[in-house]
């Protein structure tokens, strides 16, 4: 999302449209300057504080205040082949099945997502679709544009009612389905090794039953460069998962709190039999310690807790997806 801060995004993992080609943002870290709980200014890299550097690849803001991040860069843009395809909500089930089959085995250069949303009142959207639930596919080709045109043809053959895929600024693509600031939010997510027809039916049903016109129901494919790293190469376990579901509830005021939160939670309950139990923490809010531990797995969490003890033994940095120092009594339970 275009409004996301780069430090929290990266330290929490950094899932983006080009991740299947270039990996997560944290996978491309070269070094991080940060201020520790004790007020020390240090640099973490492969050569300096390597254990801390490992922890910063998905361990979030648990270890200090990041003041500078150095990245390995890759050529991309500024103009890319990208955009959005839309279909009426009535076609959502068929579009979802076709999308799953196409995206599952797509080239690494293809970043994509399936999203159910309310069609905006924009010029590129026909009047009969504006304000209605639509099924959308977001596409970005992180490679040669000519090759990308061939790669996206199967998606275009699904005859979308709206096709705004073409050369555009990467920054413009980032803002195409971004929610404006100032509204209330409740996010959650789950990992999936497979996404069969039953799972798609649950996903589609909840996509059509959103409680707010601002909410989105999102399915993202993983794989590619994300899966190139092993379970212990970074704190983030579950690198081999193939899909993420992301119920993204957004609404106007407190009167909508119960209905919108209940929608996201009910989807998680109904999709649970298709999940792995793991999770990408940047996609959720405060869902408790069990979810945090599930994101890292037992071995990685224990290693993170030990590093936390070294750099923040009093758990000063706890307003986050908190990794508790190993020395805390509650961390031993």
Description:
The longest helix is centred in the C-terminal third of the chain and has 23 residues. Helix 4 crosses helix 7. The strands form two sheets. Strands 4, 5, 6, 7, 8, 9, 10, 11 and 12 form a nine-stranded antiparallel sheet that branches. A three-stranded antiparallel sheet has the order 2-1-3. The chain is built from nine helices and twelve strands. The model has no long low-confidence stretch (mean pLDDT 94). With 333 residues, the protein is an alpha+beta fold. The protein starts with 5 loop residues before the first helix and ends in a 22-residue tail after the last helix. It is globular and about 60 Å long. It has two domains: 86 residues, Uridine Diphospho-n-acetylenolpyruvylglucosamine Reductase, domain 3 (2-Layer Sandwich), CATH 3.30.465; 205 residues, 3-Layer(aba) Sandwich (Vanillyl-alcohol Oxidase, Chain A, domain 3). 42% of the residues are buried.
């Amino acid at each position: 999302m275009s409004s996301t801060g780069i430090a929290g995004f990266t330290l929490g993992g950094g899932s983006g449209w080009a991740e299947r080609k270039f990996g997560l943002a944290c996978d491309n870290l070269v070094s991080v300057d940060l201020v520790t709980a004790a007020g020390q200014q240090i640099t973490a890299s492969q050569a300096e504080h390597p254990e801390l550097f490992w922890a910063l690849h998905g361990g979030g803001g648990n270890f200090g205040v990041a003041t500078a991040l150095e990245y390995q860069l890759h050529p991309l843009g500024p103009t890319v082949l990208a955009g959005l395809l839309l279909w009426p909500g009535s076609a959502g089930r068929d579009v979802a099945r076709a999308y799953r089959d196409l995206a599952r085995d797509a080239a690494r250069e293809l970043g994509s997502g399936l999203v159910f949303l309310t069609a905006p009142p924009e010029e590129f959207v026909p009047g009969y679709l504006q304000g209605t639930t639509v099924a959308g596919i977001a596409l970005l080709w992180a490679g040669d544009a000519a090759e990308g045109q061939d790669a996206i043809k199967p998606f275009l053959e699904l005859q979308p009612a709206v096709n705004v895929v073409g050369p555009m600024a990467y920054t413009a693509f980032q803002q195409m389905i971004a929610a404006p600031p100032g509204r209330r939010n409740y996010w959650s997510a789950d990992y999936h090794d497979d996404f069969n027809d039953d799972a798609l039916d649950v996903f589609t049903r909840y996509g059509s039953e959103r409680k707010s016109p601002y909410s989105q129901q999102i399915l993202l494919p993983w794989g590619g460069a994300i899966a190139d790293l092993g379970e212990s190469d970074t704190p983030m376990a579950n690198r081999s998962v193939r899909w993420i579901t992301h119920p993204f509830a957004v609404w106007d005021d407190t009167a909508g709190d119960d209905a919108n939160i209940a929608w996201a939670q009910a989807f998680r309950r109904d999709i649970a039999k298709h999940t792995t139990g793991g999770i990408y923490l940047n996609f959720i809010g405060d869902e408790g310690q069990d979810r945090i531990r599930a994101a890292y797995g037992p071995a990685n969490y224990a290693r993170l807790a030990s590093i936390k003890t070294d750099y923040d033994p009093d758990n000063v940095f706890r307003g986050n997806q908190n990794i508790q120092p190993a020395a805390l009594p509650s961390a031993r339970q």
